[in-house]
Design goal:
- The protein is of the alpha+beta class.
- 54% of the residues lie in helices and 19% in strands.
- The chain contains seven helices and four strands, in the order αββαββααααα.
- It has helices spanning 2-11, 42-55, 83-95, 104-111, 113-126, 131-137, 142-163, and strands spanning 13-20, 23-30, 59-65, 71-78.
- A four-stranded antiparallel sheet has the order 1-2-4-3.
Length: 164
């Protein structure tokens, strides 16, 4: 009897992957009814976004409510390496036009005049406009690294808008 219960529990385990604001989020939960992206409220995504941005969390637990007002505990996690994101970034890197590049003006807009000029110098000089080198440059300052990523993704999004 114990074996059957474990088997039934394993059958109801579900994984759901949803793209939200460019992030791929995986949800794992147990429920008899198959859930879809439409079953997850905007409030759940807002809570996850706050955890990611303010607390640098990459995973946690959240309550999902079904149409029947039933609460399901789900584990969520950011999928750090997403093929779609990597493809968009590499397509941008290979095909961007001048208005989509990481310019001195853009660095200054995101980091301020002096710091922006400093980071642009690192980007154009020491890092030779190589994303991996620039990511490593920010390894000891996660907050500045995230600002760089936000700036980068704004340009990747511009590229994707004109490319589609």
């Amino acid at each position: 009897m114990q074996i059957n219960k474990q088997f039934q529990k394993a059958q109801s385990r579900q994984e759901l992957f949803i793209e939200y604001r460019g992030w791929l989020i995986g949800f794992t939960f147990e429920h008899d009814k198959k859930l879809s992206a439409e079953d997850i409220s905007v409030e759940v995504f807002d809570k996850i976004e706050q955890k990611v941005i303010l607390e640098y969390d990459r995973s946690g637990f959240v309550l999902l409510e079904t149409e029947d007002d039933e609460c399901i505990e789900a584990q969520w996690r950011m999928l750090d390496l997403d093929y779609g994101l990597m493809l968009r970034m590499t397509m941008w890197e290979a095909n961007r036009n001048p208005s989509e590049t990481l310019s001195l003006e853009l660095f200054q807009e995101y980091f301020g005049s002096v710091t922006g000029e400093h980071f642009y110098g690192k980007w154009a000089g020491e890092c030779k406009r190589d994303l991996c080198r620039m990511f490593r440059y920010f390894r000891s300052n996660r907050q500045q690294g995230q600002i760089f990523c936000n700036m980068l993704m704004s340009q990747v999004d511009k590229y994707c808008e004109h490319d589609s």
